[in-house]
Amino acid sequence: MKIRNIFITCIWLAIASADTLQNSDFELPPTDWNETSPAFFPLNGSSIPGWTYDGAVQYVTAGGELSLPRNGHAVLLQEDGKINQTFVANGEEMQYLLTFTLGRRRARNCTANASLVVSAPDSSAQFSLTLKYGKESWEVYGHHLGSWGGGESVNLVIESQDIDAEPESTCWPVVDDVMLSTVGSLKQGDDNLLPNGGFELGPAFPDFPNDGVLLDSEPSLVESALQQWTVTGTVKYIDAKNFFVPEGKAAVEIVSGVSAGVQTAKQLDQGSDYNLEFMLGDANDSCSGVLVVGVAAGSSAQNFTIQSNGTGSAKKYAMTFKGAGPSPTSISFQSYTTTQRDDGVFCGPVIDGVVLKASSGHKSYMQFSFLMTVLLATVLKLGNLM
Ligand SMILES: *[C@@H]1O[C@H](CO)[C@@H](O)[C@H](O)[C@H]1NC(C)=O
Ligand SMILES: *[C@@H]1O[C@H](CO)[C@@H](O)[C@H](O)[C@H]1NC(C)=O
Ligand SMILES: *[C@@H]1O[C@H](CO)[C@@H](O)[C@H](O)[C@H]1NC(C)=O
Ligand SMILES: *[C@@H]1O[C@H](CO)[C@@H](O)[C@H](O)[C@H]1NC(C)=O
Ligand SMILES: *[C@@H]1O[C@H](CO)[C@@H](O)[C@H](O)[C@H]1NC(C)=O
Ligand SMILES: *[C@@H]1O[C@H](CO)[C@@H](O)[C@H](O)[C@H]1NC(C)=O
Ligand SMILES: *[C@@H]1O[C@H](CO)[C@@H](O)[C@H](O)[C@H]1NC(C)=O
Ligand SMILES: *[C@@H]1O[C@H](CO)[C@@H](O)[C@H](O)[C@H]1NC(C)=O
Ligand SMILES: [Ca+2]
Ligand SMILES: [Ca+2]
Predict the structure, then answer these.
(1) In whole angstroms, what is the distance from residue 52 CA to residue 85 CA?
(2) What is the span of the domain harbouring residue 281?
């Protein structure tokens, strides 16, 4: 019965999160483009389905100097290059999360790299290609755009960063596969005080083979693409199609080394005992070595050491702590090691299945105080009757 409920919830979430932009993969070409057009085709007045552009923008084709997830086409944003598309946020207020691919023209002798800036009415964020966390020459990023609803129209703008360098010797960003997904309000389950302890709610995963969705630092719980978790450093949001995931469909791999990680906070009863359960392991991405994860909850902290051979395994761990109160108690997972694979790609420990519960001692105290309340109410009632 319980399993069926979870199944139904998942289906509902999947339907709720289906939201599309037009020509989000840029496979519908500009009106004046044809198969014989050059691989780097400057746009000059013609229109590209779904999008408006401004500044120096090229319609590009994967090949020698450019690699893209599924080959095909994308846009290169040069000096003041900008594309935008408006979508309508129908229905109740939802969080809008973005997933996109960032690439660049290869083998260019550039003296500066321009970043990409993604903005919407409530947010603006900058992304730079690092090529440190995967073997491809493109990266997939996740981002929290904002929350909207009630038919509001939202203009999503993607532009190259304005930099102080010669345009000719600058490597400009390439954008492809822009995907939107939505998440409604999170509800606390019966058996976990943390609403997204399993990391199942986050930006959409691409439907092509990928090295994970990178999430940059985000100090705000409500503005994080990884719902209800802040991010320090860079973490990779990984799915079960491309990686070993301990539980469910998604997990987090801490990739940027020492002090990177994820944190959450929860209002807990001061002085009460709580039990924190979680899974630590590796993503089956050849990340081998000793991985140390520091787990802190309230004023308790403990280090956990995993001997990883990089072939995909995870173990359950637990620790107990006392609720801090009156302000929310913080719970964090932090890497104490920086690890690189044999091919130089940075990698790290995988966290999943974080379950927070009141300790049984606390529960019996709750039951006791509930009994006392009932008893007191009965006594008062009796008192009233007399
Ligand atoms: C294809 O586009 C090029 C310009 O990029 C143009 O010169 C050529 O005539 C076009 N060919 C066809 C068959 O439309
Ligand atoms: C763009 O088109 C305009 C006319 O529509 C033309 O004057 C201009 O030279 C073109 N620029 C390039 C770079 O082709
Ligand atoms: C792009 O933004 C401009 C305003 O800056 C707007 O007029 C235009 O409709 C937008 N384009 C799309 C496709 O939404
Ligand atoms: C890169 O640029 C420098 C300076 O502009 C030049 O000397 C060098 O030959 C260039 N290398 C390649 C591979 O183009
Ligand atoms: C540009 O970015 C690439 C990929 O991250 C890097 O290898 C290169 O050193 C950067 N170039 C400059 C001038 O910063
Ligand atoms: C965990 O390990 C780090 C690095 O070795 C150390 O700085 C920290 O004090 C340790 N924390 C605990 C709780 O042992
Ligand atoms: C890697 O670890 C897993 C589980 O810890 C184990 O089953 C497997 O045999 C190990 N593989 C190698 C090559 O050591
Ligand atoms: C790890 O990946 C390999 C393929 O790369 C696959 O055969 C294997 O089953 C995976 N292991 C786990 C534990 O998922
Ligand atoms: Ca494409
Ligand atoms: Ca999970």
Answers:
(1) 7
(2) 186-386
pLDDT tens, position by position, 206-227: 999 999 999 999 999 999 999 9
Same-domain check for residues 50 and 94: yes
Q: For position 168, what pLDDT does the model report?
A: 87
Q: In this model, does residue 201 exceed pLDDT 60?
A: yes
Domain boundary among 147, 167, 183: 183
159 vs 2: which has the higher pLDDT: 159
Look at the block and give the residue holding tokens 């090229």.
58
Test site for ligand 2: of 44, 54, 59, most ligand atoms within 8 A of the Cβ:
44
Specify the number of domains making up the chain: 2
CB under 5 Å of ion ligand 10: residues: 198-199, 247-248, 251, 352
Q: What is the mean pLDDT of the chain?
A: 90
Instruction: Report residue 166 as tokens.
Output: 């010669």
Query: Is the whole model's pTM more than 0.70, yes or no?
Result: yes
Q: How far apart are the first and last CA of the chain?
A: 47
Using a 6 Å CB cutoff, which residues line ligand 6?
Answer: 294, 301-303, 336
Do the Cβ atoms of 310 and 332 come closer than 8 Å? no
Residue 386 above 80 pLDDT?
no
**Cβ–Cβ < 8 Å for 287, 335:** no
Six-digit token pair at 358? 């009141």
Pocket of ligand 1 (CB under 6 A): 34, 36-37
Burial of residue 50 (CB within 10 Å: 0-12, 13-18, 19+) is middle
- Closest ligand to Cα 32: 1
What is residue 5's three-state secondary structure? helix
Say if residues 308 and 281 touch (Cβ distance below 8 Å): yes
